[in-house]
UniProtKB/TrEMBL annotation, chain A:
It comes from the Bacteria. This is MaoC family dehydratase.
Automatic annotation (TrEMBL), chain B:
Gene3D superfamilies: Hotdog Thioesterase. InterPro entries: Fatty_acid_synthase, HotDog_dom_sf, MaoC-like_dom. GO terms for molecular function: fatty acid synthase activity. SUPFAM superfamilies: Thioesterase/thiol ester dehydrase-isomerase. One of its GO terms (biological process) is fatty acid biosynthetic process. Residues 19-112 form the MaoC-like domain. This is Dehydratase. It comes from Kyrpidia spormannii. It holds the Pfam family MaoC_dehydratas. One of its GO terms (cellular component) is fatty acid synthase complex.
Length: 148, 137
């Protein structure tokens, strides 16, 4: 399966992701984000959030714990990959202790001619739902694959 | 400084947030914490084989800075509903990014502000830019 429109509709299995307090702390530290909402339970309890939440881009971890939909594409070359765009729609805050069901799907593939040759844009949607099947976060990433 | 819904105006420029220089240890920490182990961000030799002159930061790290900026602006007074960015330029170790924001539209009925946000490097070049929607409680 080459990197072309035949990838559209390719899905991963649904994976279970448990959101952990220590993981959120390490993520916030790596970004250098000092908000106490991510780490200070007593403080977070006293706010309208009523408890710890995760930083918004912690959503990227939901897409990384599973083999993505491009993992088994023959000849797929990581050297040729760039991250073009990223969108997140947050239906509710992500919280430590939560369990999510996560699935990724290739929703679009299209070509563009760039300065350095043909580039293929791959749009992958990542959907995280909670145990009641309610959406938590929806991510849409555009991967740029340099074909030439 | 935290924003107050009552004092926001359309086209208002928001106070910027200057991040410390990106360094290699941060890239290793971000790789571990995010789970993005693409060696382009941590392995010098791999980056050179990919035609770069050294490792580059994860695009998502710069988006993470913008997420930090939004939370910094909101404090505990509101929530982030949506973020969308385009990665326009590479970020290298040593780069100093400044997060900037402008209020674009205010939806008074539901206390939602649409912001334009960007991470700008020390040369004034936009590296990552996009829009965010935030809702005040």
């Amino acid at each position: 399966m080459p990197v072309d429109r035949s990838l559209i509709g390719k899905k991963t299995n649904v994976h279970v992701v448990d959101v952990e307090k220590g993981h959120i702390r390490r993520f916030a530290e790596a970004v250098g984000d000092p908000s106490p909402l991510y780490v200070d339970e007593a403080f977070a309890e006293s706010t309208p959030f009523r408890g710890l939440i995760a930083p918004p881009t912690f959503a990227t971890t939901l897409a990384r714990v599973i083999p993505g939909p491009l993992a088994d594409v023959p000849g797929f070359d990581l050297h040729r990959v760039l991250h073009g765009e990223q969108e997140y729609v947050f239906h509710r805050p992500m919280r430590p202790g939560d369990r999510y069901w996560v699935q990724q799907e290739v929703i679009d593939v299209y070509d563009r001619a760039g300065r350095s040759g043909r580039m293929t844009f791959i749009v992958i949607e990542t959907r995280a739902k909670d145990i009641n099947d309610l959406p938590v976060v929806t991510g849409r990433e555009t991967i740029i694959y340099r074909q030439d | 400084m935290e924003l107050m819904w009552e004092t926001l105006n359309e086209n208002m420029e928001l106070e910027p947030l200057v991040k410390p220089p990106v360094d290699r240890v941060q890239l290793v920490k971000y790789a571990g914490a995010s789970g993005d182990f693409n060696p382009l961000h941590t392995v010098e030799e791999f980056a050179r084989q990919a035609g770069l002159d050294g490792v580059i930061a994860h695009g998502m790290l710069s988006m993470g800075f913008l997420g930090q900026y939004l939370r910094h602006l909101l404090g505990v007074k509101g929530d982030i509903l949506r973020m969308k960015v385009r990665f326009q330029r590479m970020v290298k170790p040593g780069d100093v990014l400044t997060c900037r924001g402008t209020v674009r539209t205010l939806r008074k009925d539901d206390r939602i502000a649409e912001l334009e946000v960007a991470a700008v490097n020390q040369s004034g070049d936009i590296v990552t830019a996009g829009v965010a929607e935030v809702r005040f409680f």
